[in-house]
Amino acid sequence: MNDFAQRFFQDLKAQLPQAAQLLPKKELQAALQSSLNRLDLVTREEFDAQSAVLQRTRQRLEALEVELAQLQAQLDRPAPENDK
Fold first, then answer.
1. Which is deepest, 11, 17, 28, 81, by most CB within 10 Å?
2. Residue 80 domain-assigned?
3. Is the per-residue pLDDT at 1 higher than 60?
4. Model pTM score
5. DSSP string, 52-82
6. Domain contains 52
7. Can you tell me the distance from the alpha carbon of 2 to that of 4, in angstroms, rounded to the nearest whole number?
8. What is the number of other CB atoms lying within 10 angstroms of the CB of residue 23?
9. Proportion of the chain above pLDDT 90, given as a percent
10. 59 pLDDT exceeds 90?
11. What whole-number distance in Å separates Cα of residue 27 and Cα of residue 41?
């Protein structure tokens, strides 16, 4: 989040050069940090880990759907009749 805050301040300074005089950096950074902390954000690593879990879950679900379809097809086939 500090990287984000630094980029935000750089962009703000580029867009509004007088902003540094109007809003002290420490106060603005504290307000920004407080706002960001209230958001439900995750790190890129957490996002990537959850994406990987979701991908594996989808693959497993697809495999189970195929298996279920095969089992259903077996149950739907008529049983062979014994000639005795």
1. 28
2. no
3. no
4. 0.52
5. HHHHHHHHHHHHHHHHHHHHHHHHHSPPPPP
6. yes
7. 5
8. 15
9. 39
10. yes
11. 22
Phi-psi region of 60 (alpha: psi -120 to 50; beta: other; left: phi over 0): alpha
**Structure-token match 């259903």, residue found:** 72
Angle, CA 65 vertex, CA 63 and CA 73 arms, to 5°: 115
What letter does residue 35 receive in the DSSP assignment?
Answer: H
User: Which residues form the domain of 66?
Assistant: 44-75
Compute CA distances 43 → 30, 46, 49, 54, whole Å. 20, 5, 10, 17
Could you tell me the two tokens for 36? 């960001």
In a domain, 82, yes or no: no
To which residue do tokens 């960001």 refer? 36
Residues 30 and 52 in one domain: no
CB atoms within 10 A of CB 81: 6
Structure tokens at 81: 């009749």
